[in-house]
Amino acid sequence: MSQSKSEAQAGSAARRTTPSGIEVPAVATPAMRRAPDDSAPGEYPFTRGIFEDGYRGRLWTFRQYSGFGSAEESNERYRFLLERGQTGLSVALDLPTQCGYDPIDPMARSEVGKVGVSISNLSDMETLFRDIDLSKVSTSFTINGTAAMIFAMYLAAADKAGVPRAKLTGTIQNDILKEYVARGTWIFPVRPALRLVADSIVYANQEAPRFNPISIAGAHVRDAGSSAVEEMGFTLANGLAYVDELLSRGADLERFAQSLSFFFYVHMNFFEEVAKFRAARRLWARLMKERYGARTERAQQFRFGVVCGGSSLTAAQPYNNVVRVAVETMAATLGGAQSVFTCAYDEAFQLPTEQSAELALRTQQVIAYESGIADSVDPLGGSHYVEYLTDEMEVAIEGVIREIADYGGVVKAIEDGYLQRRIARSAHERKSRIDSGESVVVGVNRFKNDKEDKQVGEVFASSASTSAEVMRKYEKIRDERDAAAAERALATLDKAARDHSENLMPYLVDCCHAYVTVGEMVERLKQQWGEFVEPVKL
Amino acid sequence: MTTQLQGKRILIAKPGLDGHDVGAKVIALALRDAGAEVIYTGLRKTPDYIARVAAEENVDAVGLSILSGSHLELVKLTAEALKREHADDVALFVGGTIPRADWDALKDSGVDCVFDSEMSLAEVVNEVARRLA
Q1: Which residues of chain B have a Cβ shorter than 8 Å from any chain A Cβ?
Q2: A512 and A505 in contact (C-beta within 8 Å)?
Q3: ∠ CA(A265), CA(A181), CA(A423), 5° rounding?
Q4: Which ipTM did the prediction report?
Q5: Residue A75, pLDDT score
Q6: Within a 10 A sphere around the Cβ of A331, how many other Cβ atoms?
Q7: Interchain pair B69, A115: CB under 8 A
Q8: Cβ burial, residue A17 (10 Å; 0-12/13-18/19+)
Q9: Which of A29, A280, A308, A486 has its CA 20 to 30 A from that of A348?
Q10: B75/B110 Cα distance (integer angstroms)
Q11: To 5 degrees, how large is the angle CA A305–CA A311–CA A317?
Q12: Could you give the C-alpha distances from B21 to A10, A315, A538, B120, in angstroms and in order?
């Protein structure tokens, strides 16, 4: 009886799909499930979360992506956020640091200290964490092309501060594969870049066992315009490529698999986003157990952080973004995220001000402490619609992984530009759906204000003298360091890079201790490995 | 599919180190759908390189995509490089994350039109077609 009634309702409405194209029933019923999954939270395949007690045991980590200008300016912002109850730091680095250019390099012209902080040598790293206890604060670095160098520098800074490496917690993003696909801070060709990633994972597992040496990041794939299904499919495929790389060099599966973590966007289609996280968690556990034979639960568990979707924010009517960020934070936490970065409402067009960054942090705190979301584990588990979507998303994500494997694997798909073209097309479709009004964006294609509404109260302005100050300090370090020691460390790195059985991390740490700069380390490796040649095809 | 830009050659370029190229690619695809021949430079190109390609390929327009906040410097350098290449008769467009407050300064540097990310593809194509008519 109720079944036929819901069928009638479904038939009466026009066909609807999620943004990824999954059919949305007018009313979901248990009969729509593909394979009922009665697993409990904390139990394989972890559909309902990796912890038995969900957020009761521990809330997610509150982070805010921040960093700009000089190490001094960023240090000040970090201490501001920590004083207001932020529980982890997230370091944004400027583009020269991300692409391996020192601040004085002609390629760095006009980019020093923009979109992130400039960190070219150990002195900058020490300044960045001045008066912050590295054994107490978990720090996440958004760094990929030069992740091994920045990680080495963080270890060197901890060494100098007398903090045991075993006490360090945090994450380096270190997902070079998605850089070729979506964000573009690649440096080396794919294969040597994969070696650096594997080196840093193996080294971190030994030296800093509580530190996450990689955060396989779908966020940028999504930001570049992919659908939620593609975001998960491409990212899990990248994750499998790292697993294969590590296994090919004999790394211990149970050990390294525990240290893999993931990072995603959360967008505005609330239920698809919740289902996306639940589906990926289940699929990853199955892949690790069934494909690779991972035995321990830790090695099967899918741990992830989330950032609110920058590309879902609008410069038009910017205060609407406060609401979007709240909805997205709820989707991320109902999906079981381990950490959340909330965006500031002004982030669609500028670096956040102190006030907008604080409001973003408060948004998480209100949801965590006032809404009751954290009280019961996986509160949407068992919802007919969420369980249906979880099943459908899992099948669709698995389909994308299979498609990439059929193409010849991630590395080939990147080198050919296949994944890049696929994302560009999805982005074009997404934009066209917004242009046509099929996808509603309030303030942009519906409920627009006629009058100019792009102004917000205060505009953040980084100090104009930042760049000159960064360069002055850079020159000073280069002048004052022991030049012979720096050259010796570089020569040893050079030699190690020629031997594929060597792990390059200890040599990079030595370089950092000798105040060798990021640009110098990168330049030396470029001479051996060359640079990635981008397949430019539309 | 329209033919608004039939016979026009347009260079879409990414100056500086900003690696977010999706906007550039989406615009490139839209311009191509409108009939233009589109060349895309790929990432991290210097203003000198962009101007050289513009001159060699004899394009009608150059579109720069910049999201890193370095637009004022990079646009000025590109406009100067185009002058050196005697290609300053080409139309110069810029899009990305460009605050309104900077639009006038960009126009003073030689930019014909600034596009923001919330404009529709049709609006962008129409505007390019109008400028190249």
Answers
A1: 16-22, 25-26, 28-30, 32, 38, 40-44, 46, 68-70, 73-74, 97, 99-100, 116-118, 120-122
A2: no
A3: 70
A4: 0.88
A5: 93
A6: 26
A7: yes
A8: exposed
A9: A280
A10: 8
A11: 120
A12: 40, 19, 11, 17
Confirm if A131 and A76 have CB atoms less than 8 A apart. Answer: no
| Local mean pLDDT, 10-residue blocks, chain A (538 residues) | 47 80 96 92 98 95 79 90 84 95 92 90 97 92 96 98 96 96 94 96 97 94 92 97 95 96 96 98 98 97 91 89 97 96 82 86 96 97 97 98 97 93 91 92 89 53 75 96 98 96 97 98 97 88
Output b/e per residue, A420-457; b: 16+ Cβ within 10 A.
bbbbbbbbbebbbebbeeebebebbbeeeeeeeebebe
- The token duo for A178 is 């998605």
Nearest by CB to residue A111, choosing from B16, B21, B38, is: B16
DSSP conformation letters of A36-82: ---PPTTSTT-TT-S-TTHHHH-PPEEE-EE--BSHHHHHHHHHHHH
Other beta carbons within 10 angstroms of residue A280's beta carbon come to 27
Nearest to B98 by CA among B64, B60, B61, B47: B64
A316 — contact with chain B (CB < 8 Å)? yes
Closest Cα in chain B, distance from residue A525 (Å): 19
Where in A238-362 does DSSP place strands (E)?
260-266, 304-308, 339-341
How many CB atoms within 10 Å of residue A492?
15
Q: How many CA atoms lie within 13 A of B51 on its CB side?
A: 19
Residue B78 Cα distances to A110, B24, B46, B124, angstroms: 13, 17, 8, 21
What is the pLDDT at residue A311?
Answer: 81
- Strand-pairing partners, residue A117, are A69, A93
Distance (Å, whole) CA A189 – CA A484: 30
Q: What is the pLDDT of residue A309?
A: 79
Q: Measured between CB atoms, does A424 come within 8 Å of chain B? A: yes
Report how far residue A102's alpha carbon sits from residue A9's, in angstroms, rounded to the nearest whole number. Answer: 62
The DSSP-derived string for A414-474 is HHTTHHHHHHHHHHHHHHHHHHHTSS--BTTTBS--SS-----S------TTHHHHHHHHH
Q: Determine the residue type at A163.
A: V
CA gap A427, A292 in Å, rounded? 34
Cβ-Cβ contacts under 8 Å, B116 against chain A: 315
Question: What does the block give as tokens for A414?
Answer: 């990147």
User: In this structure, are residues A97 and A85 in contact, taking their beta carbons and an 8 Å threshold?
Assistant: no
Instruction: Decide: residue A291, CB within 10 A, 0-12 exposed, 13-18 middle, 19+ buried.
Output: exposed
Q: Give B-chain residues touching A348 at CB under 8 angstroms.
A: 97
Q: Residue A99 has which token pair?
A: 């692409």
* Strands of A211-212's sheet in order across: A65-66, A88-92, A138-142, A170-172, A211-212
Please tell me the predicted confidence (pLDDT) of residue A13.
57
Q: Which pair of structure tokens corresponds to residue A284? A: 């990853």
User: Cβ of A338: how many Cβ atoms within 10 Å?
Assistant: 20
What string of pLDDT tens digits covers the 133 residues of chain B? 578 999 999 999 999 999 989 899 999 999 999 999 999 999 999 999 999 999 999 999 999 999 888 899 999 999 999 999 998 799 999 998 888 889 999 999 999 999 988 889 999 999 999 999 8
Q: Per residue, what are the HEC states of B34-62? A: CCCEEEECCCCECHHHHHHHHHHCCCCEE
**Mapped to the 3 state alphabet, what secondary structure does A477-494 carry?**
HHHHCCHHHHHHHHHHHH
Please name the member of A99, A427, A538 whose beta carbon is closest to the beta carbon of B32. Answer: A538
Distance CA A371, CA A369 (A): 6
Q: Cα Rg for chain B, rounded, in angstroms?
A: 13
